[in-house]
Amino acid sequence: MLPLSSSVIRPNFVAKKIFSSRDILPKDDKNLWKIEQGFVRIVTFHEDGTIVTLGIWGVGDILGRVLSKTEPYQIECLGKVELSPWQTQDSSQLTQVLQMYVQQAEELMVIRSHKTVEIMLIKLLEWLAKRFGKEVQQGKLIDLRLTHQDIADTIGTTRVTVTRILQKLEEQGFIQRLRLQKIVLREEEIWHYEI
User: Start and end of every HTH crp-type domain (predicted)?
Assistant: First the structure.
């Protein structure tokens, strides 16, 4: 159980902060932050340097080092990010934030539990589309700047494997890759792929 001190519920007064792509947020064990713009990923590392993605968060999500006991713990910006301090005097709001963390961890565990990397990647794309996607004429636009290495870190595989599978999915018409690592997932098509 995390210690929920009064400093978690009522953080020190700090102004909004803006970070650039691939910036690492400074360690802050006292404050919670609300994402006003952009996306971040939270990662940890194995002893051999292997990156493990713990979560991907976007606009409206609440995050902070105080919500985890994982060491090491790093919050990396996936593009320009604007954060504002978040405080609450309502314990039910804090409970909702903790539930979101648990829910995302469970969803990523289920994605990583599939037997093949191909299915893991498809499930990750579906999850990203559901969580962050925007409806466009061709399907759902996943407008995150996730590199092939970021995706590989999330599902526990290699960048080369992710590149190969994405190329295959694009050739088969299940996805359309755009500039700046954007992907359009053709949802009605992807269901046929799994059957």
Answer: 115-189
